[in-house]
Amino acid sequence: MQPVRGTRDLIGETFRRHQHVIDNARHVSNLYGMEEWATPIFESTSVFARSLGETSDVVSKEMYTFEDRGGDSLTLRPEGTAGVCRALVSNGLTQGGLPRKVFYAGPMFRYERPQKGRFRQFHQIGAEVLGAAEPLADAEVIAMGWQIIQQLGIDDGVVLEINTLGDTPSRDAYRTALVSYFQSHAAQLSADSQARLEKNPMRILDSKDEGDKKLVAAAPTIDEHLTPEARTFFEKVLGYLDQFGVPYRRNPRIVRGLDYYSHTAFEFVTDRLGAQGTVMGGGRYEGLVQEMGGPSTPSVGWAAGVERLAELLAESPEATRPVAVIPVAEAQEGAALALTQMLRQGGIPAEIAYKGNLKKRMERANKTGARAAVIIGESEVAEGVYVVRNLQDGSQERVDASALLPALAAAGVEDAMLEQMMEGIEASFEDDDQTA
Questions:
Q1: With contact defined as beta carbons under 8 Å apart, do 108 and 79 qualify?
Q2: Can you give the pLDDT at residue 436?
Q3: Which of 56-60, 76-80, 412-416 is the least confident region?
Q4: Pick the CATH number of 323-430 from 3.40.50.800, 2.60.120.380, 3.20.20.70, 1.20.120.350
Q5: Is a pLDDT exceeding 90 seen at residue 3?
Q6: How many whole angstroms separate alpha carbon 277 and alpha carbon 271?
Q7: CA distances from 390 to 114, 354, 403 (A)
Q8: ∠ CA 131-148-144, rounded to 5°
Q9: pLDDT tops 60 at residue 261
């Protein structure tokens, strides 16, 4: 049995990279006052079909949609924003307390050709500021994304590209200009773009077809169609980015891949991932919450592929290296178990082999990558001491309870809650003496 095409197991180094991205993003999101939400991985198909737009590739080609036993059409979520907006409405959170600042992380599903950095089950982190109409919200959510990229240490060669899609009057005027331009070149458009020409010509700007790209290069830009209000909004966003210290460059061709965007659209891109150069992208959207049955709720957000971010990491996070607690014989297992649990409760990873003589237990300690081993024999229990062996250089020493944690720290083990640990270890020896 093999994993389904386009999926993979997250094990060992792959999992550590994956989790490192999520942990760092979760930490930064907390600094920005985000609360984390988790929505179901499948929703009613209408949640995505209506909100993402029927002309988007996601809806027309890539959704995993199925009918359940009750006859309802359900879809595995292809992205996170629609579900978050549905949750806002379903849980009655539109009536007060806006804006809501939401962070999420989890698997998404799209039926597309697997390639480097792209899977059919993939994972995203995302952030949404729901119910904020101000350009400062756009800049802050972008700044949060940039801080995550910096904290991961992958900002070298990553560039923020930003554009404006304008307000409704701007887009209406721009749509007319695009239709006029592309109609004059309709015969040269790909089949997909010909279909989009009538329904949503802005989607053509996002085409991956090489022939379409040549036509797009000469197409009108939105700048000449912006209303004064839309132009002012975008200028404020850029001004706030300057104040946040986020570098950017203007890209008038960014429209993003989903239909619900308006005003700000942006992508963090890199040339270090081949064709899959976008590592984070998003923008402002105005009507999505209304599509879910809620009131008009201007919002802004982004999503990022965990797999792509993880691939950019220069080094893999180190695996946990525990302390190996090793009883010399079965008679010392009680003392070894007591020490193991005290280390764990004090925040220090610890492991005890289930069976074997001293040699086999030491072999197990080396296989787990343990930094140090604490060996407990008959004489150690009698004298209230431990043998601490540094498994990195082979040195060892006998120490009493008060010196155990410093000895472990010298072997490279991170000490945690030292005072409480010391008290607990010393108390355990007193109990052993009373029992004896």
A1: yes
A2: 42
A3: 56-60
A4: 3.40.50.800
A5: yes
A6: 6
A7: 45, 21, 14
A8: 30
A9: yes
Kindly report the CA angle at 72 between 71 and 77, in degrees rounded to 5? 140
* Residues in binding site for L-histidine: 79-81, 110, 124, 128, 256, 260-261
Per the annotation, where are the binding residues? 79-81, 110, 124, 128, 256, 260-261
DSSP 318-331: PPP--EEEEESSGG
* 333 burial level (CB within 10 Å; 0-12, 13-18, 19+): middle
User: How far apart (Å, rounded) are the C-alpha atoms in residues 186 and 215?
Assistant: 10
Of 44-48, 52-56, 169-173, 298-302, which one has max mean pLDDT? 298-302
Handedness of CA 39, 42, 46, 52 (dihedral sign): positive
Structure tokens at 397: 């020493």
Q: In angstroms, rounded to a whole number, what is the distance separating the alpha carbons of residues 133 and 127?
A: 16
Q: Which of 114-118, 176-180, 222-226, 322-326 has the highest mean pLDDT?
A: 322-326
Q: Which residue has the tokens 């749509």?
A: 175
What residue spans define the domains of the chain? 13-167+227-312, 323-430
- 382 and 394 Cβ atoms separated by less than 8 Å: no
Do 282 and 302 meet the contact criterion of CB atoms below 8 Å apart?
yes
Token pair of 166, please? 């304008």
Identify whether the C-beta of residue 371 lies closer than 8 Å to the C-beta of residue 323: yes
Query: Which residues have a Cβ under 8 Å from the Cβ of 299 and sit 6 or more positions away?
Result: 85, 99, 128, 129, 130, 131, 132, 284, 285, 286, 288, 289
Cα–Cα distances in angstroms (integers) from residue 33 to residues 102, 127, 141, 183, 245, in the given order: 9, 11, 11, 47, 19
CATH H superfamily, domain 13-167+227-312: Bira Bifunctional Protein; Domain 2 (3.30.930.10)
Alpha carbon 407 to chain centroid, angstroms = 37
CB burial of residue 1 (10 Å; 0-12, 13-18, 19+): exposed
